[in-house]
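Q: Hi! New to this. If I give you a protein sequence and the SMILES for pyridoxal-5'-phosphate, can you show me the bound structure?
A: Yes, paste them in.
Q: Okay, here:
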Amino acid sequence: MLLEAAAAIYKRMSHAAMRAGRSPEEVRLVAVTKTVAVREIQEAIDIGLRIFGESRVQEAKEKIAHFLTPSYSRIEWHLIGHLQKNKAKYAVRLFDLIHTVDSADLAHEISRHAEKAGKIQDVLVQVKLSEEETKHGVKEDLFPLLQGINALPYVRLKGLMTMPPFLDNPEETRPYFRKLRELRDKAEESGFILPELSMGMSHDFEVAIEEGATLVRIGTAIFGERSDRQ
Ligand SMILES: *Cc1c(COP(=O)(O)O)cnc(C)c1O
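A: Thanks. Here is the predicted structure of the protein with pyridoxal-5'-phosphate bound:
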């Protein structure tokens, strides 16, 4: 049941935060609803979930269309999947936070469309910490990208995101999460303001919280296995 599953996740999130000497309120749950039906998202809203993460712009567009009335104004939609420049226009209209900015070109495109839409777009920069080729994200050029984003008038940089390789034992993922926090700390010493760390998924969110996550992206542990794993 959705309610039981979500309650269990919140409890584990709180415990992980407290283990690390953090306040549970510092960590927000992004319920990942890719492939999850509108009816089930409605159910999730009914039990009090407020932040939803989608991977694909087109899929999100169709679903978010069901939640546009003022009664849903407190719901946040986050883009957690890779964004192509030619979809920036729609992403800006749909999402409160884009987790996956990984190039200056993309950031520029987002700013351009945000200006047209009359909004300031909140973004995170996706950082690649492993050598896996399939993963998007910036590596060596992080600081120049942060600088470039800060120079854009209609984009607001809020933090960093990472997606480490899938490792069976979540403890093995810890060094990646720690690395992202250390990068953030280093960037803050250089004057950047990066309050958000988006890291941790169903099987490793507790370790991520212990290492400083402020946004955990959880799908399977709330909604069950996706049929078409993506
Ligand atoms: C699918 C996805 C998640 C959620 O994964 P689960 O293992 O189902 O919790 C988190 N982050 C990103 C970027 C995803 O694509």
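A: The longest strand covers residues 155-162. Let me know if you'd like me to explain how to read the tokens.
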